[in-house]
Amino acid sequence: MSPVGVLALQGGVAEHVRILRSLGCTVREVRTPEELSHVSAVFLPGGESTTLISLMNRWSVTPALRDLCRRGLPVFGTCAGAILLAKEVLEKEHDISQESLALADVRAVRNYFGRQRSSFVQSLDIKGLSSPFKGIFIRAPLLNPLSEKVRVLSSVEDGPVLLRQDNLWLSSFHPELTADGRVHRLFLEEHGLMEPATDRRDG
Ligand code: GLN
Fold first, then answer.
1. Residues 6+ apart with CB under 8 A from 30
2. Which residue of 71, 90, 97, 193 is surrounded by the most CB atoms within 10 Å?
3. Domain carrying residue 79
4. pLDDT tens digits, residue range 72-129?
5. Residues forming the active site
6. What is the spatial distance between Cα 159 and Cα 92, in angstroms, rounded to a whole number?
7. How many domains does the structure of the chain reveal?
8. Ligand 1 in reach of 111 Cβ (< 6 A)
9. Average per-residue pLDDT for the chain
10. pTM over cut 0.85
11. Domain holding 157: CATH number?
């Protein structure tokens, strides 16, 4: 099986690499269209979405990644990575839009959870996991579905925090910052990239 890729231009790359390796995956950090063409799935890390999109443009990654996503490559964007996948990106309380890959029918409001509390931890019920998952939120976006194609896998009071549209997964929290690989494993299992675990995502 081809390695799992982590886009390694900026942000929490090492954390995704670590958790994927702990699941037994072969992992490759990807920075170029050529490297992208050799992976079976890609994680877009958290970081700063404005910086990420400008680096992606500079490294000519944007069109290649968009094309691969449209052709069905499983891609999981966490926090800033989720913002990159959203079709609409807005800044909280400002009428400023931002460039993105514009693929998932989702409106992302940047820094939505950032003003009052820049980070917090909340226990999440996630469809497909049999016990709660520790959600770590850092200047997290609000992610609102814009069509019925988007499935909500987990929500908090203000809105959804884990969404899926076919091959595209978006989380406003950081599953890579825990020692719990269940969300990564769920994604990989759903796309046939890992054998379902016998302990069914309980640890
Ligand atoms: N607020 C950041 C952004 O808009 C995302 C923060 C994060 O990835 N933890 O890109």
1. 5, 6, 7, 8, 36, 39, 42
2. 90
3. 4-202
4. 999 999 999 999 999 999 987 777 788 999 999 999 999 898 765 578 999 999 999 9
5. 79, 174, 176
6. 15
7. 1
8. yes
9. 94
10. yes
11. 3.40.50.880
